[in-house]
TrEMBL record:
The keyword NADP does not apply. It comes from Kineosporia corallincola. Keywords: Membrane, Transmembrane, Transmembrane helix. Residues 67-81 have a biased composition (Basic and acidic residues). Residues 67-99 are annotated as: Disordered. This is DUF4229 domain-containing protein.
């Protein structure tokens, strides 16, 4: 996922910088200048970055499914219990053997 995220983020930033440079030719720097560059870069990223956006979405989906599958496996094997619960169970077993 990291590679897809970095690629998409760099491309979005590049579009923002390009929009800033183009607007610099026509406008004096101001808050409006930054807002216009942000809106323009969002529109351009929607139009031109659909494939990297889909790759990032797929990477996030894959990672989420992997994490959910790992948690389900931990539940099936009993490894999802908190440490204090496991320690209490071990203490109870040691006391039962000592009596």
């Amino acid at each position: 996922m990291h590679q897809a995220l970095i690629k998409y983020t760099v491309m979005r930033l590049a579009l923002f910088v390009v929009a800033l440079v183009v607007l610099d030719l026509f406008m004096d720097p101001s808050i409006l200048w930054l807002a216009a560059a942000a809106v323009i870069s969002m529109a351009l990223s929607y139009l031109f970055l659909s494939r990297p956006r889909e790759q990032l979405t797929q990477a996030i989906t894959d990672r989420t499914e992997k994490r959910l599958n790992h948690k389900a496996e931990a539940r099936r094997t009993g490894l999802d219990r908190p440490d204090d619960e496991i320690e209490d169970e071990a203490d109870d077993a040691a006391r039962a053997q000592g009596e």
